[in-house]
Specification:
387 residues; alpha/beta; 9-stranded mixed sheet; 12 helices; 12 strands; 36% helix
Amino acid sequence: MHILETRERTVKLEGEIANAVVSFADHTVSLVALISDQQRNGKPVIGFGFNSIGRYGQSGILRERMFPRIADAEPVSLLSEDGCSFSAAAIAATAMRNEKPGGHGDRAGALGALELAVWDLNAKLRDEPAYQTIAGHFKHSLRSESASVYAAGGYYYPDNSTTRLHSEFSAYRDLGFNAFKMKIGGATLPEDLARIDTALQVAGSGARLAVDANGRFDLAAAREYGQAIEPMALRWYEEAGDPLDYALNRALAESYPGPLATGENLFSAVDATNLARFGGMRPGKDIFQMDPGLSYGLTEYARIIEMLESTGFDRAQCFPHGGHLINLHIAVGLGLGGCEAYPGVFQPFGGYPAQCKIADGLVWPTDAPGFGLEQKIELRPHLDALR
């Protein structure tokens, strides 16, 4: 059993939206295919993965460094001990050969796309949904086959109207979501407060609405916003300052009593360890948002979970960033607190196919083998191009 070929396709995200810091008008995603020598119904079994949303594709790193290392490896070295599946950890280690520690950046997303494709491939070889493969591999007993999911949106659109924000969140509510997240920091504080008030009209209470500043604020601005939103008792206040400014996060946690959320821009277990040590994160309260597709894949993400649990935190505090099918399967398979969804933005990757059940803020992956990416109509042409 071996991998015949590795392929990558750079896919442009759809939509003219922006947060407080960046426009996503020209952002791309790397979609990876691992083509195996195994066949089902006369066709090769292919694993697909991608590097999540909110960065750029990493075709150069994949094609010039990681893919050749996989091609040069002895096929048996990439297999699990029983030889019946591919080893995600071995493939990740092979792809990272001769890479120095640190400097995580785009390299972490490149390997994330490649490593996640291994999980899709293995689940297809077992003819089961990926969340079952994940739970079995990490010896996690499934407590539920659904995950708590919030709908993320509320970006700064060209017309930037509160009417559009209300309509957007109302549409998410009609789909079955009952918790939401919106952007702040890209307008004045009074304007953002008006936008929050509009979102609360749909959410119904602060406990069902989170706000995200995408690292825009210094400590003074973070505290000013914190004081303004504290009476609303929001679900959480996300990434107020630079994601690596652990001192800022710690100082904000000392003055802001509500939950804080951060971590989507940390790309390794070492970075996450520093956040847990120095960022003032509070067990049982604050939210960790590290994203496997941006942090070397599921193997590294499992190390992050292990670290958090060994230092007094709970995996229920973990809500991976990303808003797509892959992280839904990971949240279910590892029994995390939940994850986010992008039902209205970041196509063709955001959100879920129509076959996924959504009700009362819970989402159920389908029983399609692997991550079920083939069920997502918007994504299917790009998958077909890699076959």
